[in-house]
């Protein structure tokens, strides 16, 4: 396994609190299940209620999350049956649930308001739900069907994706064939292009946030660090996962959507070699030093075409970095990929790897297949569906690292 020398631990993201969302439009019609999930009328008519027609004073803990999270009942009062807990996180659990009327399975985040308020993450949760619902119209993004609040909790209902995630596939194989890397980088580039054109910066591209569908296509999830950011604007909060963060983010400079394209380059390098190009440091300042000292050169057995993509994505100056899907798809490394066919899923990842590469069993499979000596390193790993917002993950900004010869 390509990762046998490193701990097989999922990276934790650094949290942030976001700004208010602009209006966003949907790209395609909602499915029937989505329409049913967004129908707030219930069989007995007593669980749904609106802030606009409330005849009593709304508690502060409810008003804080309006209007993004409409008022409804607890899950036990609605038409969902809890099957099992599939994840635990700092704000609550993620449940596998079944809707009683259509018998479909969904993943439901149940987030504790008290903890969200304590962590000062109210706007962060509002934006996560709104962005993921907008972005879920993309074929490579997990769809969020609806969200609401009760007195104690927030609820977010997502598609249930049971076929595992990219991280566990990577830890099992150690590295991916170049053809599979071509497909996955193309898919992620189209995802980023869609998000950026809709005024969103994702800020947490990493394998842990990429689920796989039944044909091996990407399903991006976890928008906890995403932020509404229109083209031409910048932000400066240090957040993300250290080994994927762009040098301008690590150095506490203002940054824009180009930071996501750096993370795409790290993703590509890691999938090709089975290891990260730079070991994680203990803080963002030391990580910035390591990144600026790294040349990101692939071994000699890789061709010039693949190295050219790495060079363009991992350009340390964001002004010169490759930052659009049109340029990317014209590079020689991607000459065999027809991007329009890929987004229409006419090209399938499972058709370009050995038959047993994707053991798609309908369950999260990889932790059961790793060798025994690696099993303990999966213990305690959080689920594919949940992001850690714990204050213990915070990076505290105390300095700006000024590094020479890089024009931010």
Automatic annotation (TrEMBL):
Q: Where is the Protein kinase domain?
A: 80-334
Under PROSITE patterns, the record lists:
PROTEIN_KINASE_DOM, PROTEIN_KINASE_ST
Q: Which SMART domains match?
A: S_TKc
Key words of the record: ATP-binding, Kinase, Nucleotide-binding, Serine/threonine-protein kinase, Transferase
Q: What is any Pfam family matched here? A: Pkinase
Task: Write down the Gene3D superfamilies for this protein, in alphabetical order.
Answer: Phosphorylase Kinase, domain 1, Transferase(Phosphotransferase) domain 1
Could you tell me which residues belong to the region Disordered? 1-56
GO terms of molecular function? ATP binding; protein serine/threonine kinase activity
Where is the sequence biased in composition, kind Basic and acidic residues?
26-56
Which PANTHER family does UniProt cross-reference here? G PROTEIN-COUPLED RECEPTOR KINASE/RIBOSOMAL PROTEIN S6 KINASE, RIBOSOMAL PROTEIN S6 KINASE-RELATED PROTEIN
Protein name (database record) = Protein kinase domain-containing protein
UniProt organism field: Batillaria attramentaria
Q: What is the lineage of its organism?
A: Eukaryota, Metazoa, Spiralia, Lophotrochozoa, Mollusca
């Amino acid at each position: 396994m390509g990762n046998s020398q490193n701990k097989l631990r999922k990276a934790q993201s650094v949290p942030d609190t976001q700004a208010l969302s602009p209006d966003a439009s949907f790209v395609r019609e909602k499915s029937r299940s989505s329409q049913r999930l967004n129908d707030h009328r219930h069989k007995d008519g007593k669980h749904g209620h609106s802030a606009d027609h409330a005849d009593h004073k709304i508690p502060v803990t409810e008003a804080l999350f309006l209007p993004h999270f409409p008022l409804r009942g607890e899950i036990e009062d609605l038409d969902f049956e809890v099957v099992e807990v599939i994840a635990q996180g700092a704000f609550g659990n993620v449940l596998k649930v079944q809707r009683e009327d259509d018998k479909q399975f969904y993943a439901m985040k149940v987030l504790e308001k008290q903890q969200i308020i304590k962590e000062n993450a109210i706007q962060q949760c509002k934006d996560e739900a709104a962005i993921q619902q907008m972005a879920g119209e993309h074929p490579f993004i997990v769809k969020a069907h609806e969200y609401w609040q009760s007195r104690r909790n927030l609820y977010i209902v997502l598609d249930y994706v049971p076929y595992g995630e990219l991280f566990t596939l990577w830890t099992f194989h150690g590295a991916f064939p170049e053809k599979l890397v071509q497909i996955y980088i193309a898919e992620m580039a189209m995802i980023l292009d869609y998000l950026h054109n809709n005024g969103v910066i994702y800020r947490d591209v990493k394998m842990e946030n990429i689920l796989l569908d039944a044909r091996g296509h990407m399903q991006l999830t976890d928008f906890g660090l995403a932020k509404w950011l229109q083209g031409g604007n910048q932000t400066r909060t240090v957040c993300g996962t250290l080994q994927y963060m762009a040098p301008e983010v690590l150095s506490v400079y203002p940054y824009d959507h180009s930071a996501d394209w750096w993370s795409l380059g790290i993703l590509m390098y890691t999938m090709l070699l089975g290891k990260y190009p730079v070991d994680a440091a203990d803080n963002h300042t030391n990580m910035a030093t390591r990144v600026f000292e790294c040349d990101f050169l692939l071994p000699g057995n890789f061709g010039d075409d693949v190295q050219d993509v790495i060079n363009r994505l991992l350009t340390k100056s964001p002004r010169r970095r490759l930052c659009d899907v049109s340029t990317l798809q014209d590079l020689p490394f991607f000459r065999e990929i027809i991007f329009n066919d890929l987004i229409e899923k006419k090209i399938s990842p499972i058709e370009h790897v050995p038959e047993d590469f994707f053991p798609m069993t309908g369950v999260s499979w990889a932790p059961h297949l790793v060798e025994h000596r690696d099993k303990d390193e999966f213990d305690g790993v959080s689920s594919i569906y949940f992001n850690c917002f714990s204050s213990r993950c915070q990076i505290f900004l105390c300095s700006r690292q000024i590094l020479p010869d890089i024009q931010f």
